[in-house]
Design goal:
alpha+beta, Arc Repressor Mutant, subunit A, two-stranded antiparallel sheet, globular, binds zinc ion, WH-like_DNA-bd_sf, ATP-dependent DNA helicase RecQ zinc-binding domain-containing protein
C-alpha cells in the first residue's frame, strides 16, 4: 500500500517525463518501447518549451545510494528524504551541522573519503532533480522508505513522517541493470533551442 503511494508521489514530482508514458511504464511496462511521448501533457509541454537534455546520471545515483547507506547505518535518529537530498547536495544548514552530516565519510575503493570534500554533483545539481532521483530509487526498490505514524508523548496527537530506512540488499549491483537517464535543464540546452 505504501509502495503505491510512493509511485503516486513520483508521478506528481516529475517535471519533464511524459505523464502518459509514466502511466504506461507503471501499468504496461512491456509496451513502453512502443509508446511515444504524447507531446500534449503538462510535462511534455514544459519539456518542449525548456528543452532539457536527456543525461545519464548513473554515477550520481550510486552516490545517492552511498549517502543513504552511510546516513541510515546505525543511525539513532530518523533520516528523512530531505536529509538525504541535503547531504547529497552538500548543504550546510544548522541541522546538517548539528547531526555532523557534513563530516560524513564514505568507503570508496577501500579508502575513506569525506563526502563534503568530494566534487559537487554536476548532473543532479538542483535539489528537485536529486529528489526525483531518490523517489526513483524508492520506486525501483533500491531504497527502502516507509511512512511512520507516531503519537506525540506530550500532546497525544498523531503525526506521520516519511523515513528513509536503508538501501536494499545488492542495491548498487542492481542499480547497474536500470536506466538512470534524466531530463536535465541547463542554460546551454536552452540556447540550443534558439
Ligand atoms: Zn506527455
Amino acid at each position: 500500500m505504501q509502495k503505491e503511494l510512493f509511485n503516486v508521489i513520483a508521478f506528481c514530482t516529475t517535471q519533464y517525463d511524459c505523464r502518459q508514458r509514466f502511466l504506461c511504464k507503471y501499468l504496461w511496462p512491456e509496451l513502453l518501447s512502443s509508446y511515444d511521448e504524447c507531446n500534449n501533457c503538462d510535462n511534455c509541454q514544459k519539456r518542449n518549451k525548456e528543452n532539457p537534455q536527456l543525461t545519464d546520471a548513473f554515477s550520481e545515483i550510486l552516490e545517492i545510494l552511498e549517502v543513504v547507506e552511510a546516513l541510515t547505518k546505525n543511525s539513532l535518529i530518523e533520516v528523512s528524504p530531505d536529509n538525504i537530498v541535503d547531504v547529497f547536495s552538500r548543504s550546510n544548514t544548522d541541522k546538517i551541522r548539528k547531526n555532523k552530516y557534513n563530516e560524513l565519510t564514505l568507503q570508496r575503493d577501500s579508502k575513506e573519503v569525506k563526502l563534503y570534500e568530494e566534487k559537487l554533483p554536476t548532473i543532479l545539481i538542483l535539489k528537485e532533480t536529486a529528489r526525483i532521483a531518490l523517489n526513483d530509487l524508492v520506486c525501483k526498490n533500491l531504497v527502502k522508505q516507509e511512512i511512520w505514524l507516531q503519537k506525540s508523548k506530550m500532546t497525544q496527537y498523531l503525526s506521520c513522517s516519511t523515513v528513509v530506512v536503508e538501501i536494499s540488499e545488492n542495491a548498487k549491483e542492481n542499480a547497474k541493470k536500470e536506466c538512470w537517464e534524466y531530463w536535465i535543464y541547463s542554460r546551454k540546452g536552452k540556447k540550443r533551442s534558439g
